[in-house]
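Support request, priority: normal
Reporter: lab tech (M.K.)
Component: structure prediction queue

Hi team, I submitted a job for Cytochrome P450 from Baia soyae yesterday, and the status page still shows it as pending. I've pasted the exact input below so you can check whether something in the sequence is tripping the parser. The sequence length should be 408 residues. Please let me know if I need to resubmit or if it's stuck on your end.
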Amino acid sequence: MEASLRKAILLHDITKLQSKEEQWEPYAWYKEMREKSPVFYDPEQDVWNVFLYDHVKRVLFDHELFSNKRERSLIPIPRNQNDDRNNVNSCDPPQHRSRRALLSKAFTPRSINEWKPRIQSLANELVAGLEGQTTVDIVEKLAIPLPIIVIADLLGVPSKDRELFKAWSNILFLPYAKDLFEDIAAKKGQAMKEFEEYLYPIVLEKRRHPVNDILSDLVQAELEGEKLTDEEVVKSGIGLLGAGNEITTTLISNMFYSMLFDKPEVYQELRKDASLIPKLVEEVLRFRFLVTMDRRVAQDTTVFGHEMKQGQMVIAWIASANRDEAQFAHAGELDIHRAGNQHHLAFGAGAHFCLGAPLARLEATLLLTSFVERFSNVSPADGMKVDEHLTASVTGQSLKSLPVHIKR
Ligand code: HEM
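Reply from support: The job had stalled in the queue. We restarted it manually and it finished. Here are the results:
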């Protein structure tokens, strides 16, 4: 294997799931793994895999055994070693604390709440834009624009340029494939370069004239007694723009998919009682959200009954943990009244718990609230076949479109 390819962990080569539908609905395979091989070693890639809730949680929490300092990953994004000083996701406590503190100010529930009116009015505007149509694509009209406009506003990047940074982050989040590795790596390198060149002058401007946004906070922030360099701020900005839009788009798309196909009666229930919407959002994160995280084994261990060697990689199959019957009764059913569904691990756990969780939850909730108020019904477009609407993503497949009928 070439050195560069060895850095990437190829998920499909572990699951061996071939068709798009299987990759979109890998839940039967997860169940089989939980029952038959809950701790599974893949010799081809030298990677351990854990599928049970308790194991996944342990991997995420225990940074002494399972470290975020890693060379290999599911999604190696091109970057230089020396601009990694402020990368919040590639270090462990205690170093992690100061890097995270740089960003966390912007993401406290209080500062997110200050953004609420702006997010609500954007959501209302997007939903109102559907008026007069009977068939619309939820992904194109709602799930893509809301998160990207919001994160651009928060950072202080012109949201009119969103098509540009959407295209770059799509490429950066592309999954690797063995046969296309060099092509994909080259595309990612190019996208990263263009993204940096785009953000650089914006960051310089913030340094000259700081305003009330995240990039301005970052140019003024200090890490271990030193200001961040312009390059470091650019890198953080790219990380947030990427994290802030791709995954929230998936949450919104999957939420609509679940209302259409997993539990169609839920829409009328939400119409009657909109206070149930946050519960639906939480349950979708548990039930229909493909997430996996990787860690490096930091010291030899037998915590899971097998000999894991220092330096090997572990994949925590979060989406499998979220369907573990030992943790969630009738886990294979979408149930918005479930008690304790907030214990899902879709946002991770422990020191690296997702900083954007309150923002993602808020966006999905406000958007659906606005939608439910306006439309009396939503149903799948005629003859909709899911495999025609999927696209490969790091953790399997995501919806690239979702055509629905809407009724005022
Ligand atoms: C539905 C949407 C989202 C999901 C499911 C999600 C999921 C996750 C997960 C699983 C982690 C843990 C990574 C690890 O353990 O190594 C994480 C970390 C992170 N997320 Fe999110 N995320 C979402 C939205 C967002 C948004 C909107 C933002 C920012 C605008 C964001 C920013 C971050 C950051 C900065 C980290 C790194 C935290 C750290 O390493 O300390 N996320 N996210």
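Residues 60, 68, 88-89, 100, 103, 151, 240, 243-244, 247-248, 251, 291, 293, 346-348, 352, 354-356, 359-360 surround protoporphyrin IX containing FE (CB under 6 Å). The longest strand covers residues 293-297. Let us know if anything else looks off. Ticket resolved.
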